[in-house]
Amino acid sequence: MHGLAFDHPGRLLLLALVVVLGVAYALLQRRRSRDAVVLPGLSALMASLPKLGWRRHVVAAAMLVSLAGATAAFAAPTAEVKVARERATVVVALDVSLSMAATDVSPDRLSAAKSAASQFVSGLPARFNVGLVAFSGVADTVVAPTQDHQKVEDAIATLQLGNGTAIGDAVASSLDAIAAVPGARGTAAAPARVVLLSDGANTTGRTLPDVEQQALAAGVPVSTIAYGTPDGIVRVQDGFVRVPVDGPALAELADVTHGQAYQAASGKELEGVYDDIGSQVGYTTERHGVAAGATGLALLAALAAGAAALAWSPRTI
């Protein structure tokens, strides 16, 4: 909770009156001390009375705190509170093309992606619908959006490599999966996002400009993670083939659809990227009233002042 603000900041001007009372109290105490008159036998009389000393100042200070708290509550304070967006749908689209076998990301790109994807899914709120699309030469909806997150994690662990990189088809399949999620009638569409991981350019299937327009029409941002390095290589029958990461195409896909584009050159960086996306997708920041807290503080201070006054007041028979 942060970003404290007030719906009626003008009411905070009343705090000036609390300050005036505090100053007046201090001046009164100083005046009493200055104007004190010493009379014969007064010292003996004072010795027979309870010694309040600093304790009377505690009572006054508690009352001033109580007034300040009540004034703050009167100004209707609000704060930014992070709350879960419980109706969200997230589809993870994971590239399983042969280039994902490159070991420039330890232990290899696909293993690092699987680990981070599982961590991401496990960290989402329980009521999120989460789906999984795997793509190489074709895109396959492995798990339709569901609240059974363990099912998605289990499916991620079983993914295998294949030929080709159909990024456009993967986005289209993800959007179709999101559109098929049942929604409550009469309510606004639930927030949704596609999180796509890939290390290469679109080599087959639908074009990226085509699916970018489809995502825009559906109002679904596509966040992309380009991982790997320019020096990635994979082993083939005739030796080795360079498979450099192609981040610009993925960044453009994210930019056009109003998603976020990330670069993750290693498994560790990829985990951090997923943490960031999880925060963006999983929660939203809202302003909530916190006047109750200020009122509670004022009440506690008033109770403390009253209790102190009763406990330290002179007793008579």
From TrEMBL:
Top-rank lineage group of the source organism: Bacteria
UniProt cross-references to PROSITE patterns, sorted A to Z: VWFA
Pfam families linked: VWA_2
Keyword Membrane part of the UniProt annotation: yes
Keyword Disulfide bond attributed: no
Transmembrane domains' residue ranges: 12-28, 290-312
Entry keywords, A to Z: Cell membrane, Membrane, Transmembrane, Transmembrane helix
VWFA domain span: 89-277
Protein name per Swiss-Prot or TrEMBL: Ca-activated chloride channel family protein
Species name: Motilibacter peucedani
Lineage: Bacteria, Bacillati, Actinomycetota, Actinomycetes, Motilibacterales
